[in-house]
């Protein structure tokens, strides 16, 4: 009886150098593709977050505008009511307590107007921040604007020196 010969093992060795290189190269390409896909997903996620922040800030501005209009109407009507209560007090049909209550209502209406105005300022700055426009240069602030360029160049110079020492 003849021993079984395995042609497969003889013709295709398991660890052929060219096959290993191809596998390694393919793995690197797959890894690079996965990293690119991951970077694209991260970029899309950042875009969505920025878009959401801008929409939210814009909604805040619109809401604050509506609050301001309502508060202005309340201040106007409270002022008119106060004037009428004062006239009625002068005629003797209202008391000083009624006048004080009307003044308290007017003060509350003014407070609501101030709060609505401050909410609009906050919402406006939120929108500027979401748009990336909340910098000293964009706001025209009288301050010295510093950048990381000198530090980055210094670090790059250090790495360049280390490379030349190693080589």
TrEMBL record:
<dbReference type="GO" id="GO:0009279">
    <property type="term" value="C:cell outer membrane"/>
</dbReference>
<keyword id="KW-1134">Transmembrane beta strand</keyword>
<keyword id="KW-0813">Transport</keyword>
<dbReference type="GO" id="GO:1990281">
    <property type="term" value="C:efflux pump complex"/>
</dbReference>
<dbReference type="InterPro" id="IPR003423">
    <property type="entry name" value="OMP_efflux"/>
</dbReference>
<keyword id="KW-0998">Cell outer membrane</keyword>
<keyword id="KW-0812">Transmembrane</keyword>
<keyword id="KW-0472">Membrane</keyword>
<protein>
    <submittedName>
        <fullName>TolC family protein</fullName>
    </submittedName>
</protein>
<dbReference type="GO" id="GO:0015288">
    <property type="term" value="F:porin activity"/>
</dbReference>
<dbReference type="InterPro" id="IPR051906">
    <property type="entry name" value="TolC-like"/>
</dbReference>
<dbReference type="Pfam" id="PF02321">
    <property type="entry name" value="OEP"/>
</dbReference>
<comment type="similarity">
    <text>Belongs to the outer membrane factor (OMF) (TC 1.B.17) family.</text>
</comment>
<dbReference type="GO" id="GO:0015562">
    <property type="term" value="F:efflux transmembrane transporter activity"/>
</dbReference>
